[in-house]
Design brief:
about 20% helix, alpha+beta, 1 helix, about 15% strand, two-stranded antiparallel ribbon
């Protein structure tokens, strides 16, 4: 003998609504108050291309540094230091 099981239409609707709410609540929100900002710093060191007698150049000012795929760019100071803020 085979038993049959029938689910009431309202029970099915209830599960659809509950699972829909669960799935929609799993999405990440981009609340700006939760975003952490940071900085990125570095030093450029320029030298001669002569491998037999490498020499570091005295001034590393004006070297352009950029982050690919973004609008961020900066230049180094005379000591070669560069910095990106509020990333």
């Amino acid at each position: 003998m085979r038993a049959s099981f029938r689910v009431h239409p309202y029970v099915s609707l209830f599960f659809v609504i509950v699972f829909g709410q669960l799935l929609s609540s799993c999405s990440q929100s981009s609340n700006p108050s939760n975003v952490q900002h940071g900085s990125l710093t570095g030093v450029v060191s320029l030298g001669s291309e002569d491998a037999s007698s490498p020499q570091q150049l005295a001034n590393s000012a004006g070297v352009s540094i950029s982050l690919d795929g973004t609008g961020y760019s900066t230049t180094s100071d005379s000591s070669g230091f560069w910095e990106f803020n509020d990333l």
